Amino acid sequence: SFSRIMAAAEEADLLGLGGETASDGKSAAEDYKDGGKDSEPSFSWMPAGCVPMADGLYDVVVMGTGFTECLLSGLLSVMGMKVLVVDRNNYYGSEAASLNLTNLYKKFFDGESPQANFFATIGGANGPAKDRDFNVDLIPKFIMAHGNLVKILLHTKVTRYLDFKAIDGSFVVKGSKVHKVPATPQEALASSLMGMFEKRRFRTFLIYVAEYDENDPSTFKGRDLNAMTAQELYAAFSL
């Protein structure tokens, strides 16, 4: 579990790499940095024919660059540990990656590179699409704006190279048309996704949510949202 990993890491030298020493008492990395006889550091645990990455000394080695792995790496790094992150793919993100057109094609066509007409077809009348005109999320990533995850991201300082963007809207396909899921009382009345009576019920629900204030019991309208499930709340408005 995460807690066990953190506890073990705090005890120091999680992988036991710091104990490897040369015949003169220096560690393999120290011997290498001091211009020792070896052209590169060597370790007794390393299989023959393998070459160490960098100086070979890390507190933690994380396999993969998925969301969990990156979050864990950031937290350990903030704690002052030396972390190495490796990935077998030529892009970051693992199964939660955002892929450009070439990487997206390769993922679903057994590593084959796309033909020129692939970009022309996507670009349409605007001409051939460029590789980075699109970044397609393999898994949609939504973060609650006032949640613990945002606090962790701020703590690890990834916000230096990460931008947050509010969601413009949610959309669904009905028939052959794309419809916006109503998010305001006005949109609820104008939406073609619902019948007349359901529009009014949904409008009442949106007004209740917008006016709800956890510090003002008068806005609760007899409902305890700390005890109700979302399904029970929807049922209360006959949705």
Q: Summarize the amount of helix as a percent range.
A: 25-40%
* Separation, N- and C-terminal Cα atoms: 39 Å
Q: What order do the strands of the largest sheet run in, or round the barrel if closed?
A: 1-2
The ordered string of helix (H) and strand (E) elements is: HHEHEEHHEHEEHHH
Q: Class by helix and strand content?
A: alpha+beta
Q: What is the global morphology? A: flat
Major pleated sheet:
2 strands, parallel
Unreliable stretches, pLDDT < 50, 5 or more residues?
A: 5-23
Radius of gyration, in angstroms, nearest whole number: 27 Å
Q: Give the strand tally.
A: 6
Q: Calculate the mean pLDDT score and round it.
A: 79
Tell me the number of helical segments per DSSP (H or I, 4 or more residues long): 9
Strand % is 5-15%
Notes on the protein architecture:
By secondary structure, the protein is α+β, with helices and mostly antiparallel strands. Helices cover 33% and strands 8% of the residues. The chain has nine helices and six strands. The protein has helices at 2-10, 28-33, 67-78, 101-108, 116-123, 148-155, 185-190, 196-211, 230-236; strands spanning 60-63, 83-86, 98-99, 136-137, 171-174, 177-180. The strands form three sheets. The chain has a two-stranded parallel ribbon. The protein has a two-stranded antiparallel ribbon with strand order 3-4. Helix 3 links the parallel strand 1 (60-63) and strand 2 (83-86).
Compact description:
This protein is 33% helix and 8% strand. The chain has helices spanning 2-10, 28-33, 67-78, 101-108, 116-123, 148-155, 185-190, 196-211, 230-236; strands spanning 60-63, 83-86, 98-99, 136-137, 171-174, 177-180.
